[in-house]
Every structure is written in C-alpha cells, then in structure tokens.
Design brief:
467 residues, Arc Repressor Mutant, subunit A, alpha/beta, 13% strand, 3 domains
C-alpha cells in the first residue's frame, strides 16, 4: 500500500530526483501542510522500495531533513515530520514583513460595522431564549431560502441549516453520510481543506480534471457511472482555484447521472457570488436534482471572520443532519446570525463592492504576471484567484524560493493529490492592489532566483505551515 508521503510526492514526478531534490520536495510538503507535523513517515527501507531508489539515497534524504529540523527520529519510534526550532527570529506568516497568498479572501465589507450595529436590537430580543440554535434562526433560514428560490431553486426554511461556515457544513454532511472506505469524486484541483476533510472521513478519492477552460464532462459522467462514488464534491461557480464555471447543460447531465447511480452530490457555492464580468448567471446545480446538497457562506462576500454558513438539503436529510450535529456542536453563534441577516438584506451593495475589489485585484495580478517571462494568466471572470500556468513544472521550487523572499504562496500540488499540477500556481485576486503589487514584485524576484539556479537554504526559509 502506498504511503501518504509518496502519494503526496507523486512517485512519477520525483523519478530521477537527487537526494537533495527529494529532501526539498518533502520539506515543501511539510511547510504547506500536505504532510502534517508529527505525522509518521515511511522507514528508509520502505521509502526506498516505494520510490524504487537505493537505501543510501533515502538515508541521505532523511539525514538532510533531520539536519534542518524537518524530521525527528527516535529509536523505536520511527521518523516523523517536524518543524525546526531556532533561537533566531524567523519570519512567519503573522510577521508584518511577510505577504501571505495562501488565503484567498478579502477584508471586511464596508457595511459590516453598520450591519453589526443594526443587529444588536434583534440580538437583545433573543436574551430570553436558551441561546442555542441547532438549525438556525428562523428569520435567517427564511432569508437564505428566499435567495435559493429567487435563483430558480424553490426552497423552504425547513430545508436550511445555518452553520459556522461552509467547511463546518461540509464536515457535518460527511459525518452524517459517512461510509468509510467508499469512493468520493473530487475535482482536481480543488479547495485543499475539502480534500483533507474528505480524506479524514475515510473516503478513497476519484479525481476528475478541471482547468480554466472547464471540466471534462465525459470524464465526470464516466467516473460516476463506473466508479459509483458515494459522494461527489463540486465547485461549479467560479471554481476554486481555476475560476471556471460549469455550463448549464453539463449541470443537468451530471446531476441526472449522479442521481441514477445513487451518488450524493455536494455543491460548494462559497464563490458563487464573486462575479466580475462573466456575462451570464447559471442556474444552481440543485435545480436539476432534489438530492443535491448545497453549502454556502458569508466568508467571501462579507468577511472571513464572520463564521456563518448554511446548507440546503431535502427535509429527510436535514432531520438526519440535525440528529448528528449535537455530537460536535450545539448550534451557530446568534450574534453572527443576526449580522448575516442584516447583510443579506443589502446584497446589491455587497456584490457591487465585491465586483469592484475583485476587478482591481485581477488587474494588479495581471500587471505583475506581465513581468514574468513564460507565465500565462488565463481569464478569471470572477472567483478568488488567477490560476497561473508557469510553463514548466517548477511550482514547488518557486514556492520555496518565494518564502525566502518574504512571500507565502502555496504550490499547485497543494490543490491536488499525488504531487501533480507542478506547472500551476494560484495567486489570489482578493488583496488590495498595492499589496498585490508588492507580492508580485517578490514573486518576480523568486522567479528570477529559480531560473538563475539560486535555491533557498533551509535556514533561509520561514518555518510555518500554509493555512
């Protein structure tokens, strides 16, 4: 059985790599969180067998990592991933000198303060209640249901559960539907934390490719028909990270195929409102099948610090979800729900602000990419990011070089399985233009370092995991 380390490395992609190059790859996996601190790694002998390399090579790899503090080895306890300890001050992503591109999110909407003030009287009326809100405030569920209905998916408040963010909703769905060892269809690339959640719930993942020009619809339907996965996780609107939108005809065929084979389709709509200039508004995938489960949140349209999400599902599944939810939380914070209700009543202003910010951010990234020889920036009509084509499989190397330049940017393989997508790099379009311009200057310096053959030493790299 292939170890997680080799799955993340991608055996094909490290064939012929030197011990130093292998150590660099493993260090990158640890730095961006694909291998967790404390995780047990294969023995030197097992790693040599999996990679079809000599034992002396893997011994040297672990020796290099241990010398830099990226693995710890205890007699009888095996080899485990670690982060270095140092008496010197090393920049982290919390350091003001660092620019963090690992989180594609904007700061709060200008209307958040006023919405918070307006929400306080509503919160005051709730003081006589227990304060627990297992399904969510009826008024907020009604507001979310009305938004679904307005978009072509007739919905009642009883079909809505308010959650502490979309990822919280996804974990609740996975915990309720869970069949460990079964298959899950996932896009490649996709939201990394969704991959981690699906993996943690014991699913075996079946990837289907997505690029800036869209999905391979035949591959999706063939995977559903022949793989018969228990769940499918899709981001059909302004896909993260490619910004692609699934065509309406494909939505109908995929929803029908999934229903016929008994696959639970989980649609992530956290990016659905992030339109810049797409030019059309698709019908939500849930309109094509009543079994589709949809999750969304306020994090991308208002503020990441407002931990409010929701899910829409059939009433029978809502009953099951509510039975499971108390095992790990008793509801969603009431203040945040009151604020979200105020914000949802002013969506035209919210979306106008988002469109302006994203357009400016996209332009700033495009100006920076113009200075990177050989790098292509595909169209990004909305969404969170630009999915750059680097023209060569150097994403991990570039990510390491960028850290040495004070820039945290996760490499393409962070959004996939098996070490693939080394030609790709996600750059958020969500930062203020001046911050983006500085980030792109540092990326250009790192790009020049890579092509000049200057690789960062371990001591020069900020030791912090990508979020």
């Amino acid at each position: 059985m292939t170890s997680r380390l080799v799955e993340q490395l991608g055996a094909r992609h490290v064939a012929g790599a030197t011990a130093i190059e292998l150590a660099d790859r493993i260090r990158a996996l640890i730095l961006d969180g694909r291998i967790t601190v404390g995780e047990r790694l294969p023995s030197e002998r097992a790693l040599a067998i999996e990679l079809r390399r000599s034992r002396s090579t893997t011994t040297r790899v672990y020796g290099l990592l241990e010398a830099d503090g990226f693995v710890s080895r205890v007699h009888g306890g095996g080899t485990r991933a670690a982060l270095p300890h140092s008496d010197t001050v090393i920049p982290t992503v919390d350091d003001d000198t660092m620019i963090d591109l690992s989180i594609a999110s904007m700061d709060s909407t200008p209307g958040l303060y006023d919405a918070t003030v307006r929400s306080l009287p509503r919160l005051a009326t709730l003081r006589r209640t227990s304060g627990y809100s297992l399904q969510g405030l009826p008024e907020l569920r009604d507001a979310v249901a009305q938004r679904f209905s307005a978009r072509g998916v007739p919905t009642t408040p009883e079909q809505i559960i308010i959650t502490s963010g979309a990822l919280n909703a996804l974990n609740l769905i996975l915990a309720t539907l869970n069949r460990r060892g079964d298959r899950a269809l996932v896009e490649q690339p996709t939201f990394p934390h969704a991959l981690e959640a699906i993996h943690r719930h014991g699913y075996r993942m079946l990837p289907t490719p997505v690029d800036h020009d869209g999905w391979d619809e035949r591959h999706v339907t063939d995977t559903l028909l022949h793989g018969r996965p228990h769940i499918a996780y899709l981001i059909p609107d302004f896909h993260n990270p490619t910004a692609a939108t699934l065509p309406e005809s494909a939505r109908a065929r995929i929803a029908t195929t999934a229903r016929n084979v008994g696959t639970h389709v989980i649609v992530d709509e956290t990016t659905a409102e992030l339109d810049i200039d797409r030019g059309w508004t698709p019908t939500p995938l849930a309109a094509f099948s009543p079994e589709v489960i949809t999750v969304g949140s306020m994090s991308k349209i208002a503020w990441g610090g407002l931990r409010i999400g929701w899910m829409r599902a059939e009433r029978s599944l809502v009953t099951r979800l509510l039975a499971v939810r108390p095992s790990f939380e008793l509801g969603t914070a009431l203040l945040e729900q009151c604020i979200a209700l105020e914000l949802l009543q002013d969506m035209p202003a919210l979306t106008a602000h988002i469109r302006s910010r994203l357009r400016d951010g996209r332009s700033a990234v495009a100006r920076g990419v113009a200075d990177l020889d050989g790098v292509d920036m595909p169209p990004a009509p909305g969404g969170l990011s630009a999915w750059l084509d680097l023209g060569a499989p150097v994403s991990t190397t570039l990510s390491l070089a960028a850290r040495a330049r004070g820039l945290v940017v996760p490499p393409g393989p962070r959004f996939a399985m098996g070490g693939v997508l080394e030609r790709r790099l996600r750059i958020p379009i969500t930062l203020p233009p001046e911050r983006t311009a500085l980030a792109m200057e540092r990326l250009r310096a790192a790009w020049n370092d890579v092509y000049a053959g200057h690789t960062p030493r371990a001591a020069d790299v900020p030791h912090s995991a990508v979020i």
